[in-house]
Amino acid sequence: MSENKVAAPAKKLRFMPQLAGRPYLGLSLTLAVIVIMILWPLVTGKDITRETVFTILLSVTLASSLNILLGYTGYVSFGHVVFFGLGGYVGFYLLAIQGWSLWMAMLAGGLSSALLAYLLGRAILRLRGAYFALATIGINEAMRAFINNFKPFGGPIGMTLNFQVYRDYGGASQALWMVFYTMGALTLLAVTVSFFVRTSKFGLGLLAIREDEDAAEVMGVVAPKAKTWAYVLSAIFPGIIGVLFFFKNGSIEPAPAFRLHFSIETIVMVMLGGQGTVLGPVVGSGLYQGIRGYLLTSAIFKNIQLAVAGGLLLLIVLFVPDGVIGWLRHRFPFLRRVLQ
Amino acid sequence: MILQVEGVGKQFGGLQALLDVTFDLPAGQILGLIGPNGAGKTTLFNCINGVYAPSAGRVIFRGEDVTASKTYDMAHRGLARTHQIVRPLNELTVRENVTVGACFGREGHTLGKASQIADEVLAFVELSDRHDQLAGSLNVGQKKRLEMARALAAQPYLLLLDEVLAGLNPSEISRMVDIVKRIRDERSVTIIMIEHVMHAVMNVSDRIIVLDYGEQIAEGSPEEVANNPKVIEAYLGDPELAEQLLNE
Amino acid sequence: MDFILASVIDGLLLGFVYGVAAMGLTLIWGVMNVINLSHGPIIALGMFGVYLIFGAFSLNPYVAILIVAVLGLVLGVAIYYVAVQRVINAPHLSTLLATFSVNMIIIGLGTAIFSASPRNVEFSLGSLTLGPITLLGTRVVAAFAAMLVAGALYLFLYRTRYGRYIRAVANNRDAAELMGVPSNRILALSFGLGTMLAAIAGGLIATFFPFTILAGGAYELKSFVIGVLGGLGNPIGALFGGLILGVLEGIIPTFMPTTWVPVVEFLLFVLILLVRPQGLFGAKS
Predict the structure, then answer these.
(1) Which residue ranges does chain B devote to CATH 3.40.50.300?
(2) Would you say residue A3 has pLDDT above 60?
């Protein structure tokens, strides 16, 4: 029966010229947008620009990662922040208590999130639709409550970083720039991974699962395996940048690390830009943070920014469910080559 | 024998959907599976390709016991099927749909090779001009052919066709019947087809099995089955079909 | 031993109120397969409704709850027509986000108007002493009120025409429509009933706990746990689920720190989703 053996699911990520038009054009466009964002603070030379761009890059990375599960595979993870929080905590513990370097701590953060996703994935990815969404909320809340009681991680007080640590990275202000560029590099990497997943055979299997999981299995897609790997891939970057974020922050506590609202904001960004596209989460994150920044600083909306954001979200969900990129692709099919 | 079904039964709660179905299928044949609505035909398909685990009996595919295998395992082993109610991957293009079949089916091709196969298969089922369209935007007849193309792209040994003629107009039916014959002749794929359109199934099948209330009530050549009194009786509950059958 | 008994009874009383909140969530899920993520803020609005009516008109809080219930019904029907109706057949993500946007709107406006500072309803019914056990009067009344609400819902669903319509739509919307049930209006009514129950639960909680506009979030999460425990879509199961959660909350602190309560709750929640997604009492009644 050797002829029946099936090739292992896409180890090599190949692009699909026939299927996607000219995909590298789409990737280049997306990466160019991000590079311009990274260079922007250099142009203005202001710390405030750097902080704004940092927030956007963080969002882009989280949104692009989530998109692998939400947009490509069709599983709504409401508690995705659990990977950001757990990775952040593990890395922060290694940095602050065990004296590891930032790089090793980031690696450990990413790996621990990936491991959690792998273990969870085998179990909860059997659930479909709203049941899966609820389970992810439950896991995030359970994790937060657990960390709240976990003494080595400082319980409800969390942990703080000794200021001396920044000296290894050229002092506090130098470290902020280094963190910024590291964030930029990770964003480029996360988006590239998202692109190669989207255009690979593995990605095609995910899309098939999204459209009709049972039919996909009948065609030979090993859904339990593919879904688990999609979940793992979507957890790695949140884990890594969790470490980076809390390193920059100088302290970590359960509430900000596992904030459910943060998860849902990420979903909104993916939706806003267009789920299932590579460029969508990038555009969505930029738009969302832009709108949020405007509302927070505007005299009229400052106090009710959350309500206005809610109203906008409702309008998008009701009238533009495909998001900006999805809408453009639908409206102008010739743009599909560049807007991926 | 490409497929041996030995005493397969399936029970849902108190309902016996299938009881002791047994048959052998040699390679290269077209086997017609007929019977009134609710006779258990689709349930039998589901037991063969792993959607359900049978409550009793064994399924042997190409010499191996595959009873209660997963659907994707069956796909990898070289079994493909279509669905009675079409299940296109709506937001993917026609070509992407077919590529899924080639990528994850028996051969597990790489994307590049798979999309070549997709193009070839789309030409075979005469859907090439639609390759760039989203699958959700096809009409019913086209969706049926898409299902067929997806299954063929997997390059299966055995193909299960579940009412591919239902809902088609007469010209589409003759086109489809022609495709089914060519699948066996040109691609040497063995076929089991569930069908209600009697003249078509009588015309293409080498052999026919009749199910009624989950039981196998007749088996034989189209002529034998058509003249079997038990079959005619079974169809009397369904006057329209009985009349059709008697007119053949 | 007395201490444990007191904790259990206290938990049971609270459990009835949790149950009412969860019934609201699970009713909406059962009828239209929508997880209402604006559930928490509506519970909070119920709290503030009682607080404001009590403060402004010095009305008895239980009378205030009646008014809050009607307002909750109207609000729910409005939310259904504005936010839910259009996406009722869309993938789950759409309804989740649509109701979450309502959550953001309520919380956003609520924080702007009421700030996030804690309030409480200055109302007391004294306490009831039964041997070694002392119970807060407001909690006892709340539990009885909750039982009354649960009973009324049961009668409504099983003894009235509109109740039958709701069950028919929950069972099979298309078939119900073919039978002449105005399904869209029934969906709106069901959503309204769900939010009404949430608002009532909020009002009852306000009589014995202090609260802020953000307080509903915790009860929303509890409602998820209870809903899954009792079987999503099964309102009567939700009442029992509420009792189980209430008792757990009463008992756990007697042998481990209180902060472990949510860990146990949410692990139980995930476990039940995995092992018995239809809940302990079956999914739909």
Answers:
(1) 1-78+157-248
(2) no
Of A142, A303, A306, the CB nearest to C107: A306
B158-176: per-residue pLDDT in tens?
999 999 998 888 888 988 8
Is pLDDT above 90 for C241?
yes
Query: A77 CA to chain C: closest CA distance, Å?
Result: 10
Q: Token pair for residue A153? A: 């991680």
Query: By CB neighbour count within 10 A (0-12 exposed, 13-18 middle, 19+ buried), where does C124 fall?
Result: exposed
Domain ranges of chain A: 27-259
B neighbour chains, 3+ CB pairs within 8 Å: A
CB contacts of B131 in chain A (<8 Å) are none
Using CA atoms, how far apart are residues A196 and C64, in angstroms rounded to an integer?
A: 59
Percent of chain B with pLDDT over 70: 95
User: For residue C86, what is the nearest residue in chain A, using CA coordinates?
Assistant: A318
pLDDT in tens, A156-174: 999 999 888 888 888 888 8
A204–B150 CB contact, under 8 Å: no
pLDDT of residue A18: 41
CB-CB under 8 Å, A267 with C93: yes
* C101, C224, C259: residue with CB nearest A310: C101
- Report the pLDDT value the prediction gives residue B82, as an integer from 0 to 100: 95
Cβ-proximal residues to A128 (8 Å cutoff; 6+ apart), any chain: A213
Please give the ipTM for the structure prediction: 0.91
Instruction: Note whether A82 and A236 are within 8 A (CB).
Output: no
Domains and CATH numbers, chain C: 2-120+135-275 (1.10.3470)
In CATH terms, the superfamily for domain B1-78+157-248 is P-loop containing nucleotide triphosphate hydrolases (3.40.50.300)
Give the pLDDT mean for A171-190. Answer: 94
The verdict on a CB contact (< 8 Å) between B110 and A7 is yes
Q: What does the pLDDT look like over A13-34, one tens digit per residue? A: 344 444 445 568 888 989 999 9
Nearest CB to B103 within list A4, A201, A217: A201
The vertex-A306 CA angle with A305 and A308, nearest 5°, equals 65
Interchain proximity C224–A138, CB inside 8 Å: yes
Whole-number Cα distances in Å, A305 to A324, B175, B247, C97, C121: 22, 61, 74, 17, 29
Closest Cα of chain B to A16: distance in Å? 6
Q: How many Å lie between the alpha carbon of A148 and the closest alpha carbon of chain C?
A: 8
